Amino acid sequence: MVSKTKKAQIIKEFGKNEKDTGLAEVQIALLTDDIKNLTEHLQLHKKDITSRRSLLKKVSQRKHHLNFLIRNDFERYKGIISKLNLRK
């Protein structure tokens, strides 16, 4: 889970304003941060099945958001991929 200050910072960086949480780039950035945190957690706690399921769900959600950007605005897709250093 992302802290309030970290979430506000991500929204400010990727959104148009601080209340713009529905933008695809903001959603992808928040999910990416959650994925990184869960990955670190699972490296320490290998048998935590609930967190593993949550990680797979978040990866799937991020994939759907990225596919939405590919279909609708490829330039925004390339921008978010380069900012977050995602492999694609």
From TrEMBL:
GO molecular function list: rRNA binding; structural constituent of ribosome
Biological process annotations from GO: translation
Keyword annotations from UniProtKB, A to Z: Ribonucleoprotein, Ribosomal protein, RNA-binding, rRNA-binding
One Gene Ontology term, aspect cellular component: cytosolic small ribosomal subunit
Coiled coil segments of this chain: none
Domain of life: Bacteria
Listed InterPro entries: Ribosomal_uS15, Ribosomal_uS15_bac-type, uS15_NS1_RNA-bd_sf
CDD domains, sorted: Ribosomal_S15p_S13e (cd00353)
Gene3D superfamilies xref list: 6.10.250.3130, S15/NS1, RNA-binding
Family recorded in the similarity comment: Belongs to the universal ribosomal protein uS15 family.
Known partners and oligomeric status: Part of the 30S ribosomal subunit. Forms a bridge to the 50S subunit in the 70S ribosome, contacting the 23S rRNA.
Described purpose of this protein according to its UniProt entry: One of the primary rRNA binding proteins, it binds directly to 16S rRNA where it helps nucleate assembly of the platform of the 30S subunit by binding and bridging several RNA helices of the 16S rRNA.
PANTHER family reported in the protein's UniProt record: RIBOSOMAL PROTEIN S15, BACTERIAL AND ORGANELLAR, SMALL RIBOSOMAL SUBUNIT PROTEIN US15M
NCBIfam families: S15_bact
Protein name: Small ribosomal subunit protein uS15
Organism of derivation: Spiroplasma sabaudiense Ar-1343
